[in-house]
Each structure stands twice: as C-alpha cells, then as structure tokens.
Specification:
Blueprint (H helix, E strand, L loop, with lengths): L5 H7 L7 E7 L2 E7 L2 E5 L4 E7 L3 H9 L1 E6 L5 H8 L14 E3 L5 E3 L4 E13 L2 E13 L11 H4 L2
Antiparallel strand pairs: 1-2, 1-5, 3-4, 4-9, 5-8, 6-7, 8-9
C-alpha cells in the first residue's frame, strides 16, 4: 500500500461529510454499511455518488445487485451509524431486530433516517481502494423535516 504523506491526510480530513447508511439487497439478503463519502452528481437525471471500499461486504452486493439506498442520518442517529459501521455484514445480520421499509429497489429504508434515496446503479468506476457507484435516484423521501444531517467527525464519532 502506498504511504500517504501526513499533511495530505490532515488536509483531506478537513473536507466536511455527512453520515449515511448505504443499504442494499442481493439474492434475498439485506445488508448496510455506514459511509461518509456520498455526494450529489447530477440534477437531471438525479444522480448520487457513493464511494465504497472494495473490501466491504456491501461492495460485492451492490456490484452484483445494481441497487442501493442512501439513508441520511441526523444528530440523534450516532448509534445507528455505529451499528452499521463497526461490524461486517459477512458475519453479522445487521438488520436483526430492526424494522425497515423497502421501496422501488428493495434496498432497506431505515425508519429513523432523516431522508432516503433509493437508487439504481447506472455506472461504477475504479477509485483506488474504493469504487464509485453512481446511482440514479428512482424514489426518495424526507422522514423528518427540519432535522439536520449528522456531520462526520471521526474523533467524536468513535468515542
């Protein structure tokens, strides 16, 4: 693995991100992961970019199924973010005991999310140790008007 200069890493940490749960479904199995690298890519058609590490269990599921949902978390959802971010879905059923909804793609929509976007993958691109999945938003909703998006701060998030 390439050695990253500390000043590069320090500068990159200054980029502000929200906290999201990226969910998917493949062959009847659901999974999700916590992510911060999510961005709007296009107004028309409505496209979202998610950056997923190639070693993540969700990576293979999204690539195989061609679908994912972005669940936007709020400041009161830190524990939700940890639930989907600290263990691998390859060994853990992250949805055990969790009630969720599904929409167009069948990817889980968290009931406690601030908002959600259900997406169909339209392209994916190699990005070093990650893959950028570009998804067209085929359905979406806001569940909690007036609630801010949880901002990712690594030091505070993993306390």
């Amino acid at each position: 693995m390439e050695q990253i200069k500390p000043e590069v890493s320090s500068a990159q940490k200054r980029i502000i991100h929200g906290v999201y749960v990226i969910s998917t479904v493949h062959d009847g199995r659901v999974n999700a992961m916590t992510a911060a690298w999510v961005a709007r890519a296009s107004f028309s058609p409505p496209l979202i970019t998610v950056s997923v590490g190639k070693t993540r269990y969700s990576h293979g599921m999204i690539k195989a199924s061609g679908v994912f949902a972005v669940n936007v978390l709020g400041p009161d959802n830190v524990e939700t973010g940890k639930r989907y971010g600290l263990k691998s879905g390859a060994r853990t059923d992250k949805f055990a005991g969790v009630e969720y909804d599904t929409k167009t793609t069948g990817s889980p929509i968290l009931r406690e999310a601030v908002a959600w976007m259900d997406c169909k993958v339209v392209s994916h691109h190699d990005a070093g140790d990650h893959t950028l999945f570009i998804g067209e938003v085929v359905d979406a909703g806001v569940l909690r008007e007036g609630t801010a998006t949880l901002i990712y701060d690594r030091d505070a998030f993993f306390k």
